[in-house]
Amino acid sequence: MRVNKNSLLVRMIFYNDIAIIVASTTIALFLTFIAFQNLESRVIDSARDKIVLMNRAYNGEILRAKDDLNQTLRNISTLSNRSLKNIASYNEKVAIIRNQLTRRNYELYSDSILSIVDENGFILGETKRKGIPNKIDRETFKANVSNADNDIKTSYFSKIDDRIYNKIIVRYNDESNRKLYLVLTFPITEKTIKNLASLSSLGEDDKIFLIVDEKYKMGNFSLEKNTQFLSKRDVNRMANKGYNYIYRRKNIDNEAYYIALSDIYDYQNRYIGSFGVAIYYENIERLKLVISLSVIVIVLVFIAISTTISSRMFSKLLEPLGRIMEAAEEVSKGNYRIFVKPEGVDEMRTLSRTFNKMAEDIRANEEQAKSKNRKLVSTLKRIDAVEKILMNIQIENDMNITVKEIMSALTSEMGLGFSRAMYFRYSREIDTMVGEFAVINNKIKRDISNVIENGRGFKFQIEELNKLIKLIKIPFKNSNLIAKSLLEKRIIFQNDKGYKHELGNELFKSLGINNFLIMPIYTEKRNYGCIVVDYFGKNNLVTQEEVELLTLLFLNISIRIKNRNLEEEKIDLERTATIGKLVDRFFKSRETSFEKMLEFTEKMHAYDSNNTLFKIQIQEIKEEINKLRREREILNEYVDIKKNNPLEIIEIETILAEIISEVEPKLEKLGINISVFINYNGKVLGNRARLKRAFYEIIKNAKESFEKKNDDNKKINVIVTKEKNVDKIRVNIIDNGIGMTQEQLENIFEPFVGYNENAPGLGLSIVSRIIKDHHGVIKYSSQLGEGTEVKITLNIYKEEIL
């Protein structure tokens, strides 16, 4: 409305606003002062917490070192199959003990010095470390010996030159009656400072450092070593649990920090240095700015509220505003369905009409806000549920366990609240999606009677769901939505009945699927399956926001699965590289020795050719050398399994025929009958030598399974078939040998896990690698005392894949 500058309303509002602004400004300044004081106090608390946490972390490392040293001493008698009592040199003893410590934790003990010291402080033996002097103050050592004997306080700090060390004293008993002690010396290094920084939960811009003689020695400041750091240390001192702390604000490298120091004292309580934590102060300045802006907003809100309250006073001076004021009070109570009749002068009429329009807009905005608020609450709830899923889900070796955890979260009322979740695993053997299991919302289980009464479903769709799911098989083709979701690696959803859409199996029409989503689980190299969720028995609709959240969830899960697989591959590669180095180191230097041994035995045999016993012993030596050479070949094959593997088109029948012709004579001598049944002569793309090696190893294992079986009925059957409706060829190798236990089956592909004393246990590990590199699947099933069946599934070669 239009108001003249000399009107009473303008004058009253003007004077009222002056009073409000003065009062608000005073309150704002007061609140800002209190907030800044509180913020400074919080910075001090934060600095204290960081320095205390750093001290605890360092003390924890010292206690851990002490425990490792004691544990090593208890177990040292088993090292290298000899006791330390048989070693005369204390230097050898201390070297063996330190070697065991570095095996426990190389990073922790690589820079340490270990010494054997008598009760008078004389060093009897020690491990040297280049660049790190080892001086033991005899008087200080004697003062700490009683503590070490009583296991009270077994460590202390010392300073040598301008470096600080921590020494741990542990009682050491050997075959003599002398009182000896082990002294483990740790220098405080850049590595120590770096580890303390990670354990102290410092911020990205916070710093950690070490001061010796008031000079900067090390840390993550860009200061030069021996830079003068503090000139006065008598600021805000306090003591806490045996540590002294000081606090002070300081500019370093043109940046403001809040410094907290923890003093380091030697055994005689002499100050030798300080650990320090620097809290980046610019973050505090930003927070002060945010607080200031917040106070300004509060002041503005306060002014608005105060103006509204003071309007009651204006009603006494401006009676026509009374009715509008009453209407405004109704609005404040939530009654927006009011109407103020325009009366009085033009200003009042204009004000009344404006008020009516405002009330109408508020009504519309309220309805809109309620609707948005409901959506927002639902979205926030789902975001929280997704966050909890990401925090709690662990990627297990058995993907079914991980999927069950995800499905439980999807169907929880505290989670995303879906009614049912069904998992369909992709089987690489039959190129089909197979129903595995289902998870049902507990609330739906309890309210099933209400669902049936309202005509929203049937009882069997809940109680028999798991049985029905296991009967479902879905072709892995783009023609159905479930396979399409996995093929295209995206979420597909429909706010509709499931029977109206092609899901890949007629059984879906009986499940009552309603308003559903299909979520794929995959990595770049492998498809795992799909989870189907729906709102059975509910009127909920799938929203786009919901789909976007779930897309982020399953993308994160895919990344975590990929990272786990990469970690396993990394471990496998590192293990393979280590094996390769060991093979080269062990066998390369011994091949000449083998040749000399063989040459020597031949000469001895020629010298005494009539000695039958000597001839037998020479043959045994040759067999042992050949065994070692064979093991070297197997180890080299394991290391080089992925090198030089050219691909070619191979007929399975041909490669099996070559293997059978090679092994059949040997099997006949052992009374083992081998039969081949080829129902399909398919071709695969692969490496002939490696595939032949894999099949040979499996048949060899089948042969060995008869060694402990006292039965004339010894059979090995090789069956080649083609999977129906998919381009897969299957090779089954079945024997009726002694079979395997469940434990043996679980570890069957692990390297160096074998049950033949004459083999390194790498055969089936190599077989597994070969089949995996050919994009195939190998599965073992066995019953102890009945036999073993091996199922190998390979992709049939197609010309268009070249």
From TrEMBL:
One Gene Ontology molecular-function label: protein histidine kinase activity
Entries under CDD domains matching the protein: HAMP (cd06225), HATPase (cd00075)
PROSITE patterns recorded: HAMP, HIS_KIN
A matching Pfam family: HAMP
Keyword Phosphoprotein included in the entry's annotation: yes
SUPFAM superfamilies reported in the protein's UniProt record: ATPase domain of HSP90 chaperone/DNA topoisomerase II/histidine kinase (SSF55874), GAF domain-like (SSF55781), HAMP domain-like (SSF158472)
Coiled coil, from the record: 611-645
Record localization: Membrane
InterPro entries: BphY/WalK/GraS-like (IPR050351), GAF (IPR003018), GAF-like_dom_sf (IPR029016), HAMP_dom (IPR003660), HATPase_C_sf (IPR036890), HATPase_dom (IPR003594), His_kinase_dom (IPR005467), Sig_transdc_His_kin-like_C (IPR004358)
Catalytic activity: ATP + protein L-histidine = ADP + protein N-phospho-L-histidine
Annotated Histidine kinase domain residues: 626-798
One Gene Ontology cellular component annotation held by this UniProt entry: membrane
Residues annotated as transmembrane: 12-36, 289-309
Domain of life: Bacteria
GO biological process: osmosensory signaling via phosphorelay pathway
Keyword Transferase: yes
EC number: 2.7.13.3
Residues annotated as domain HAMP: 315-367
Organism whose genome encodes this protein: Candidatus Fusobacterium pullicola
Keywords carried by this UniProt record: ATP-binding, Coiled coil, Kinase, Membrane, Nucleotide-binding, Phosphoprotein, Transferase, Transmembrane, Transmembrane helix, Two-component regulatory system
Enzyme class: transferase
Name of the featured protein: histidine kinase
